[in-house]
Amino acid sequence: STTPMANFRHPKTEARQLLKKAADLRQQGRRHEAIAIYDELIDSFGGFYNERGVLYSECGEFGKAVVDFTDAISLDNTDSDLIINRGNAYLLSGALQAAIEDYTCAIQLSPKKACAFNGRGQAFAELGVFERAMADFLSSIEIDREYVSPLFNLGVLLLRNQQLDLARDYLNRAAHLCPEDVAILGVRGDVNR
After folding, report:
1. What are the φ and ψ backbone dihedral angles of 61, each rounded to 5 degrees?
2. Which residues, at least 6 apart from 174, have a Cβ–Cβ distance to it below 8 Å?
3. Distances in Å between the alpha carbon of 106 and those of 70, 110, 147?
4. What burial class does residue 110 get, using C-beta atoms within 10 Å of its C-beta: 0-12 exposed, 13-18 middle, 19+ buried?
5. Closest CA to 70 of 91, 96, 46, 89
6. Contact 66, 86 (CB under 8 A)
7. Is the dihedral of CA 161, 165, 182, 131 positive or negative?
């Protein structure tokens, strides 16, 4: 007599297959279908809140993104990337104080995260707190001199405050690093007129 083979489930293999399928769907622009796969992954395996939160953010569904990032943070409140992601969702949704709180927390956990300083600088800039925004953009640039976003953001902030020579310097640095970026070239063109 032969022993019947058990039909064992291999969670890691199954999860990898689902992750690949979700990545393929995301690349095809089929984000809501990818979200459905993350729903299945979360229900079956736990975790994956961050990944689904990123997809919700890309779809402009920031409230759902914040919920997922909060769930991810509840599983690991020492991961500064998770906190930055939630800060980004807050920033994009206009919840500027909540964004500042998350970026500040992320900076306390990981003081060398240039993107946390840049995000907090953006929130301060939106609130009209010029000095704090400028300090954060400069901190971000000090950490990573080739990070284009704070160079551009600082250039725009200086332009808004009529500091044209400094604005031109930072926008030229951003354009040098990213010569094909239409937004950078457009703003730089405005300064050079």
Report:
1. -100, 70
2. 148, 151, 152, 155, 181, 184, 188
3. 14, 6, 18
4. middle
5. 89
6. yes
7. negative
What is the residue whose two structure tokens read 């971000």?
A: 140
Cα–Cα distance, 175 to 19 (Å, whole number): 36
Q: What is the mean pLDDT of the segment spanning 134-160? A: 97
Which tens digit of pLDDT belongs to each residue from 27-66?
999 999 999 998 888 877 657 899 999 999 999 999 999 9
* pLDDT tens digits, one per residue of 93-125: 999 999 999 999 999 999 999 999 999 999 999
Q: How far apart are CA 170 and CA 156, in angstroms?
A: 9
Instruction: Please give the structure tokens belonging to residue 116.
Output: 């946390």
Q: CB of 34 within 8 A of CB of 22?
A: yes
pLDDT at 10: 45
- HEC string of the chain equals CCCCCCCCCCHHHHHHHHHHHHHHHHHCCCHHHHHHHHHHHHHHHCCCHHHHHHHHHHCCCHHHHHHHHHHHHHHCCCCHHHHHHHHHHHHHHCCHHHHHHHHHHHHHHCCCCHHHHHHHHHHHHHHCCHHHHHHHHHHHHHHCCCCHHHHHHHHHHHHHCCCHHHHHHHHHHHHHHCCCCHHHHHHHHHHCC
